[in-house]
Amino acid sequence: MKDDVFAKVENQYVNYGTRARELKNQGQKVIGYICSFVPLEIITAAGCIPFRVRGDIREPITKGDTLMETIVCPFIRSCFDLSVKGKYDFLSGMVIPHGCDSMVRSYSTWNYSLNLPYFHFVNTPSVVKESSFEFFQEELKAYQRSLEKFTGKTITDDDLAKAIRLHNENRNKARALYDFKKSNPPMISGVELTKVLTVGSSLPVTESNALFDEVLAALSQRKESPLKMGPRILLDGPCVDNIELIKIVEDSGASVVADTTCNGTRDNWPRANEKIDPVDALARRYLAGVNCPKTYRENKAGSFEGDMKARFGDIGYFSRTFKVNGAILYTYKFCDPFGFEVPARKAYYDSIHVPLLCLEDLYSAGTIGQLKTRIQAFLEMIG
Amino acid sequence: MAEEQKKPKKRMTATQAAASIGPMVKEFIAGAVRAKAEGKQKLAYTFIVCHHEEILRALDVLPVWTENFAGVCGAKRDSERFLQRAESLGLSRSLCTYALCGIGFDQWREEQGQMPPEAPWGGMPKPDFMVSTGQILCDPRAKWYQASQQYMPDVPIYNMDLPYPLFERDRDHREVWGYYQKYIAKELRGLIKFVEERTGKKMDYDRLKELVDLSDRTWNLIHETYELRKAVPCPMGTGDAMNTMVPINFMMATQDSYNFFLNLNKELKEKIAKKEGEVEKEKYRLLWGGGLPAWFALSDFNYFNAKGACFPAETTYRMVAPLYEMDIPETKDPVEHLAWRWLGYWTFWYDKARKRPGSEPDVERLISLIENYKIDGVVMHEAFSCRTWHVGLIWQLHQLGKIYKPIPVYVVTNGKKEKTYRELPSLILESDIIDITSYSEVDTRNKIDAFIETLESIRKNRAD
Description:
The structure holds two protein chains of two kinds. By secondary structure, chain A is of the alpha/beta class. Chain A has helices spanning 2-14, 18-25, 40-45, 74-84, 101-104, 107-114, 130-151, 157-179, 190-200, 205-221, 244-251, 262-268, 278-289, 304-321, 336-339, 342-351, 368-382; strands at residues 30-33, 49-52, 93-97, 118-122, 232-236, 255-259, 326-332, 356-361. Helices cover 49% and strands 11% of the residues of chain B.
């Protein structure tokens, strides 16, 4: 049983988008997205399938560079390159949020180069305050209207509420998967979990829920950890949708037991409130719940220490909950939102006594050798 | 480092007005240091193009333009030590170098309790508060002061959200801009409250209205003045505009800014009457089509000039549009007006772009400048550290290439088919805004030489 489900995950991870292509061929609309700020529930409520567009660190960026500057974050460049090469030609549309400059400033390039029937920008506020929620609700309603126009289907509050429940269920199951990382050694490896979550984000939410159930069932039968006892690592950073970095850590005798990444806990931890108005619930989940450095949170404490706790408290929570021995802060070159936080994050890790390795990378297989050397040295240091 | 220490060759200006800018900038940087010492006025770190100068000035706050200071460090070729300081804190050189320079400077000043040694033009004083905004343009603007606050935690930040609706081909922006305006007005009112609490002053709304009116008049005057550059020969180029951007971006809502453009307007009209151009024998008219300049290499504009090329127009730092052409609702409330003006500016080209398939606002603006200023070629600059102004340029050139083809084009005018040439070569220069290590004068000038040869070859073909 365990082999069956993990073989299925492996197959869909390697042939990413196979199921979405099948569904497209059956007449369904698949809507691509790149960032944790895109409210997926509205896509699901519209009867479409949200599909997380991935990059590929092993695919050289070629056609993309003829249309987009190389000073764009390499993750976005890779996603764009694969898109213009037709890897995701089953998409009926795409939603790009106000995530970062690399996304926003390249919006026209994406829009015109892919020329999909549906394209929409969600203007996520950059600050968190009551007026931002009011604005964001209006923006989400405009996004909802644009999808209604595209699909010809009216999205009711009930549709939204149902979609919220389904996506919350998905997040609950993802959390249950993370629970298998709490033991020492963990019963699911970081590589396995990344593959499962990545594949999950390429499926309709109901199928993703079913997949997670299968994986959970397989894990509950598992008697032995796939990893040996070793340092327990938290991976802190943006979207890490290729397994190579995690594989280096785990091949070096450690295990990635927690993360703050976009396709990890940033996507999968915050839940929408099912007891309030659905649009309000989504505004609050995506603005206040998704902890991305792009969003400015006021320093209410009036001190640097207080500010750190408010901004990086999730790191402390995951470090305690998953009993980590060290962390890797992994950022991409040209990523301003994360890049400007490196000194503050370093200070926070110091304050919670978690040893830290900072890596700036290029989202390219070409750096695997260098990463390996630095990671192995770090793991030796923390024992 | 040897190159860093070399004194940069001063760029020759075409206008008296542009020549007067250097001492003005020096004075307002020194003035901030003086004001800090005197303690009579509150100082605010802040950014350009936020439409909030009127609020700060009405409450007697002295803006300290941190991007300007970084630009000055770059122009004086004295940014490297601050960039290195920032790197030593863990910040990557791939990030916005304005911000790195500013954070490096702040950390140095705070660590020492005094200005770093030989700080350019006296340095940047510690502010009383910081007003930032990422808008939907610039992540570093949202992160910079937060990062600096680590080294001066007692300095509060007000981070304003100033969104605008992005251009969508199939949507009239007016469908959504009502709730944008409401939100922006709230953000501006939040700024007023924040500043009132920190200055102990109450906003005088009559004064605010006067300053907003003054800015509006200045906007229109700038537009009319820059339109004079359509003249052949062109009396003022982009090199000078990189000086005259100062009263646009750092002195808005002051009578000095208005007066500056009155004088420039007069000077340009005089030059036009005398047929006095930026270049003695004007051969090529170029558009600076995007990108912030390399502040340490402004003399490259003189190099273009020496080849007979002038720059009658640029998109960079021309951060105004004529108010009388903006389709925004009338209001007597100055805060509401600021919010509408913000939206009016950013959506200014949307209607025109929607009418042309395949266009979008930035492209439409380029086309308008190319046609109205009789442009022969486009030059852009890609600064590696800034995504805000430098992403999308390649794509814009692709779109232009669909209109301006390198072959003769037949157009029908008054029922007659005529052969015309619409080729428009382009050049993308690459370096940075202030990081001189990214720049090679030899490579840059070789590229310029090759571009001029292309322009010359097209000119000859057309003549034949």
